[in-house]
Amino acid sequence: MATAIALVVSDVDGTLVTPDKRLTDASIRAARSLRERSIGFTVVSSRHMRDSRMSRCGLIRATSPTRVADRPGDAGRVCALNRKLRLLGSSLIVVLLASAALAQQAPPTGYRSGVLSAHDHRVPVVPDRWPWSSLGRVNVILGVKRSFCTGTLIGPRHVITAAHCLFDGKTNGFVKPPAVHFVAAQDKDKFAAHAVAVAFATSPDFRFRVEERPRWDKIASDMVKNDWAIITLEQALPSAPVPIRAMPHANLPDDTRPDEIALAGYGGDHAFVLSVHKGCTARTDAPTAGHLLHTCDSMPGESGSPVLLLAGEEAWVIGIHVAVSADFTPQLGYRALAGHGASASTFEEAARTALGN
Q1: Residues in contact with 218: Cβ distance below 8 Å, sequence separation at least 6, in sequence order
Q2: pLDDT tens digit sequence for 14-23
């Protein structure tokens, strides 16, 4: 799902600190998590500055990088802003706790989110022929916001995508079907067809409520295989569907056949252009049954993208892309390690039911 969070604003009393004005470990961990992702963190309070100074400075010291925390003077200079603001006599304060972290922002590297090497292997394609013409954007209304993922027609009225794309974290539940709109073969300002959803089915084992996640922006590893959804559209679309093919315990491509693995989707960096990475690899039921590991490049927005097995003029959906595992290095940022998704074996039966087969 394509989302971009630049700043988080929080109240102090009852949110970051306890009634006895104690800064909790949970608050510190949350602030550190934001710093690691280079997301700004701001607190706002109607308390007088001298009353909130301890909480604010405590968070700055607790969440600063090691090299800053080892030099108390640095954090002290940030906290000295309190004394300068006090001279203004303001009763409403907004303190940018990220200021210390922003000074230490990671320099850019050759690794982009979901791109597994220094080179991005994705190339734009015009979706004017099958199977690309059967892929499209899954646009989702989340209150006053909009988000999108990628989906694939597996039947005239049915689309496979990732379940988390249809989940609204604000309401902590799935959106209503009319909030989902599939646009087939989107190519800049052109498209082949579109339809609103009237229903969707997800795995009964999928758990994605905020309190069930390892972190607010992560999915539990054992949930990846259950992260699929089959959308039923209001009317049939003309594009030919892409068949689903479950391939248990497969290491693809197979050396004995000239098949090719590809991932295609609408990434956040080219939101209205279909991008494809051909020539990557995929392993089904790895590391556990139903899980899919792949080496295809991706970007946010490509959740739900099909992992395709291509053989000449034929193509099959062998799984869908869900998430990317990454390694974090302080002062450098994140480096993508592998793509993860749900193997077709996890949603093949549900697809048959939806299609009436």
Answers
A1: none
A2: 676 676 667 7
124's tokens: 């734009």
What are residue 66's phi and psi, to 5 degrees? -55, -40
Which residues of the chain have a pLDDT value below 50? 48-50, 52-54, 65-111
Report whether 228 contacts 320 (CB < 8 A).
yes
136-194 confidence digits (pLDDT tens): 999 999 999 999 999 999 999 999 999 999 999 999 999 999 999 999 999 999 999 99
Cβ neighbors of 203 (< 8 A, separation 6 or more) are 163, 226, 227, 228, 346, 347, 350
Cα–Cα distance, 215 to 30 (Å, whole number) = 9
Task: With beta carbons less than 8 A apart as the criterion, state whether 294 and 341 touch.
Answer: yes
Give pairs for 55-58: CB < 8 Å, separation 24+. 55/12, 55/16, 55/17, 55/21, 55/23, 56/82, 56/95, 56/97, 57/82, 58/23
Helix (H, G, I), strand (E, B) or coil at 178: helix
20: CB partners within 8 A, 6+ apart: none
Q: What is the pLDDT of residue 41?
A: 72
Q: Taking the mean position of all CA atoms in its chain, how far away is CA 319?
A: 17
Positive or negative: CA dihedral 7, 11, 14, 19: positive
> What's the pTM?
0.70
DSSP 2: -
- Of 206, 147, 229, 155, the closest CA to residue 181 belongs to 147
Q: What is the DSSP-derived secondary structure letter of residue 187?
A: B
Nearest Cα residue to 4 out of 139, 147, 108? 147
Looking at this protein, which amino acid is placed at residue 284?
Answer: T
Query: Which residue carries 């979901």 as its tokens?
Result: 114
